[in-house]
């Protein structure tokens, strides 16, 4: 009997669009889902396929992989593969790995990320600064930071107060900070040295905005607590230093 496998979403597909029928309420969109293609089950490693009950639709976890799952639809089994950085949670679908309990001995697909992104999707620490972390979206690393006096906890993926030992282990920049921003194509990163003004006027209530050196599609936000974040404009728009907002590219000099 032929079977159907789920493969990773191709580049350019919106992972928020596909749906999967599951044991919970029907027609719930999943994070990190995959698209269906036909497969006869003769290639690749051996898979222990479940016996599906006739009629109805429901999902089952894979016995070997935390990021694979089976869907039974009208007696037909389907094999699912979450995107790199996601794992399967019964009733909830594919969720980021830090939200998944992967039992000891179970496996994950080989990582496809590079650089600070260990996998294509996820939240990862800055190896050079305890206060910073990266949000990886399909391999593109977007920098972020914890509020001042807090550090990033890579195990729980939260910002928290450091222990006395961690205070001595973590070095924080005292004057200028090095931020990272994706270039085009988005598989490389460019370091930029930037220092927020000493007398910073918070024209947006809790932050001020400044041009990102060398890239008109991004801007730097200096926050009230002294930390910085990088903001980005929507496609076809760019940061206008005159208005301190994203504007049509045609209105921003020397921006393409």
UniProtKB/TrEMBL annotation:
Residues 1-28 are annotated as: Disordered. InterPro entries: Chitin-bd_dom, Chitin-bd_dom_sf, Chitin_bind-dev_reg. GO terms for cellular component: extracellular region. Keywords: Chitin-binding, Disulfide bond, Glycoprotein, Repeat, Signal. PROSITE patterns: CHIT_BIND_II. It comes from the Eukaryota. Residues 49-104, 114-172, 193-256 form the Chitin-binding type-2 domain. GO terms for molecular function: chitin binding. SUPFAM superfamilies: Invertebrate chitin-binding proteins. The keyword Repeat applies. Pfam families: CBM_14. The keyword Iron-sulfur does not apply. PANTHER family: CHITIN BINDING PERITROPHIN-A, CHITIN-BINDING TYPE-2 DOMAIN-CONTAINING PROTEIN-RELATED. This is Uncharacterized protein LOC113209392 isoform X2. It comes from Frankliniella occidentalis. The lineage of its organism: Eukaryota, Metazoa, Ecdysozoa, Arthropoda, Hexapoda.
């Amino acid at each position: 009997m032929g079977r159907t496998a789920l493969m990773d979403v191709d580049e350019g597909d919106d992972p928020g669009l596909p749906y999967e029928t599951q044991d919970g309420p029907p027609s719930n969109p999943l994070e990190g889902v995959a698209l269906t293609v036909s497969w006869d089950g003769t290639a690749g490693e051996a898979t222990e396929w479940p016996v599906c009950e006739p009629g109805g639709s429901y999902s089952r976890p894979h016995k070997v992989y935390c990021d694979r799952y089976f869907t039974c639809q009208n007696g037909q089994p389907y094999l699912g593969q979450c995107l790199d950085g996601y794992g399967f949670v019964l009733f909830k679908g594919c969720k980021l790995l830090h939200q998944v309990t992967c039992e000891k001995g179970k496996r994950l697909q080989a990582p496809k990320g590079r650089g600070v992104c260990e996998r294509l999707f996820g939240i990862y620490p800055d190896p050079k600064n305890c206060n910073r972390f990266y949000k990886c979206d399909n391999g593109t690393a977007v920098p972020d930071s914890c509020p001042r006096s807090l550090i990033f906890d890579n195990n729980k993926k939260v910002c928290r107060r450091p222990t006395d030992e961690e205070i001595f282990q973590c070095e924080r920049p005292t004057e200028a900070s090095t931020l990272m921003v994706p270039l085009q194509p988005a598989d490389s990163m460019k370091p930029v040295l930037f220092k927020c003004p000493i007398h910073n006027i918070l024209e947006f209530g809790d932050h001020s905005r400044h041009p990102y050196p060398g890239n008109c599609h991004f801007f730097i936000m200096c926050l009230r607590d002294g930390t910085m974040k990088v903001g980005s404009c929507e496609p076809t728009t760019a940061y206008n230093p005159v208005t301190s907002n994203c504007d049509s590219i045609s209105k921003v000099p020397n921006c393409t």
